[in-house]
Amino acid sequence: MADKKRRIVEAASEILVEGGTLSVREIARRVGSSTMGVYSNFQGKQGVLDALYIEGFELLSRALDVGEDAGTPMEAVSQASEKYLAIADEHSGHYSLMFGGAGVDFEPSPVAKKVAARAFSKLVTLASQLLPEDASLEARQDAALRVWALLHGLASLRQHGVLDFIETADWKPRVMAALTETVLAIQNRPAQTPDAKGESHKP
Fold first, then answer.
1. Measuring CA to CA, which of 3, 35, 113, 124 is 20 to 30 A from 150?
2. Which residues pair with 200 in a beta bridge?
3. CB 64, CB 128: distance < 8 Å
4. The pLDDT value given to residue 162
5. DSSP secondary structure code for residue 194 in this structure
6. Count of CA atoms in the C-beta half-sphere (13 A) of 43
């Protein structure tokens, strides 16, 4: 990403973190540019948000890339999860936009949605290591969703300041312990998915 585009995206992320009003005028002010400079690079606010959304999911996608030397499936998931939580912390403006917590009117473009889908696909691949090789796609997706729900829940609680009201000096060890329990549950008890009647059955 060119330097000017990078500064525009970073300015938008900062505004979201601060809870300010995101506008082309404010973005331009922060980067020392005219509003036309923002429009010429991103065709307006929606283009900036799309770039922020795409970059956020690309960061998450890379966080889910763990090498073959990561160790056991448990260790691989733990390593990727720690990187996921770090991304959510270090790029909270991106993260809040990606998951609808930024308070802005934004609909990702088809291209942006494909980037998000690729990130989930990587999580499915990662979570698949926890299951037998013949596990169904439904079971693999369910395992990925269970891991994602835990990580996203923790990240969201931190972003909204909920954890500020409790003693959380050791929050990361706690969430990793919860992740271990979730992984063991996935490995020892295959996911149950609802059928058309709402009744649970094993995939």
1. 113
2. 194
3. no
4. 60
5. E
6. 4
